[in-house]
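Example (one chain per record):
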Amino acid sequence: MPSNNPDAKNASGLTPTETRSLKERKPESYEEPILKGIKELYTSNPTDRTYNIYAKSAVFHDPIGVAEGQDSIRSQFNALAKLFPRADIPRFRLLENPASVPKSTILIDQDVAYYRDPKASSPTKTVNSLLTLETNDQHQITRHTEEWDHKRETDSSDGFFGMINENRKKLTAGITGFFVKPDETK
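Predicted structure:
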């Protein structure tokens, strides 16, 4: 659940206004496989190799769920591909990191158009989001946070209701993992 406070800092440590105003940049060579994998995930076209962008213990947190571990993340995106067999990315911007954001963090501003009917001429829903990808020394994602409209996601640090929301997200991810196994694709 996104925060109602427009000045709440998102996963990048910046406000939504600040992240939206960041300039676009060219990728470093070590970032290219990560960006390719992210595009495969968000266009509902993941392959087995796509998930190699994640460390085994990586965490994926979005407004719907919190997936812990590579297999759980795989289940989340494989479920997304079943729900939306077609997704297009009409806008994908790799953002410059301000001095306050470590170089090992990748910031992406993207719009994803989701289609329930892959033959439809217009999307079912288009979502703008900020992706904050924290990486390790092996250039694998250790934490992938997706925040719709760049708005901070609530978690257990937000008190009782934040704790309830975070536990609901973990339960959602667990249920998805139960019904969609990590090795299932479209």
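Caption: The longest strand covers residues 105-115.
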